[in-house]
Amino acid sequence: MADAAAVQETIEAPVTVSEAGGILQLTLASAPANALSIAMMEALKGALERARDDDAVRVIVLRSEGKVFCAGHDLKELTAHRADADRGREFFEETMRLCAGLMQTIVRHPKPVIAEVSGVATAAGCQLVASCDLAVAGEAARFATPGVNIGLFCSTPMVALSRNVSRKHAMEMLLTGEMIDAQTALSFGLVNRVVPQETLNQTAMNFAQTIASKSPLTLKIGKEAFYAQDEMALSQAYDYTVRVMVENMMARDAEEGIGAFIEKRAPEWKGK
């Protein structure tokens, strides 16, 4: 981030963090592949969990260094454990469960998470993009779930992918393993915007700044309700969201926001 007020540090080797103006940027910094090794996933999950209770953080932007956003799991790390007594079964389960936990941490995080996709996002890297609440891609970005090409169907990436795009588009990606370009990803609904590379970070930051200006309590309520109702039947979803709306109306921020709208002034959010 160009803002001189930003404080930047290395959390753990694979991930760097900078925060300013309520926006936390987490950067995958293990080029060239930015693979989801155990170390990378633990670093990301740890950073996200710390941000959960940090009142200074309103929005999270997930980005990367290099030409690859994220190439998915570290296949060399996985293959090395073929020499284990159980042929790697325990390590494979640890890896997949950690990855599933990371993706759920993003979805269940009380703060919005935006993917800023520069370059290639494949397999679990594509899953990472699909798990975020919003995604902005550079024009050269490409996406794939290519496990089928190496005898390993992208079953866990399928969970996030199928919750973002239509069944036929998801199956097209999963069954062919072929790369799709950024404009195709936009048409599929995998990303929100496709922009020139030179404006990618600014576009993601514009999204983040707009969202960060809202009541943090309202964002938390809304994000949780969105994912909860999405898995309910219609009548159940309405019953649930009626309760959510009533509780939201009782919040001080809703009282302040409605009052500010009526009085034609800027609201002052308290997060209560």
UniProtKB/TrEMBL annotation:
Signal peptide, first to last residue: none
Domain of life: Bacteria
InterPro entries named in the record: ClpP/crotonase-like_dom_sf, Enoyl-CoA_hydra/iso, Enoyl-CoA_hydra_C, Mitochondrial_ECH-domain
Pfam families registered for this protein in UniProt: ECH_1 (PF00378)
MF terms in GO: hydro-lyase activity
GO annotation, biological process: fatty acid metabolic process
Keywords from the named record: Fatty acid metabolism, Lipid metabolism, Transit peptide
Function in brief: May play a role in fatty acid biosynthesis and insulin sensitivity.
Family: Belongs to the enoyl-CoA hydratase/isomerase family.
Protein name, as recorded: Enoyl-CoA hydratase domain-containing protein 3, mitochondrial
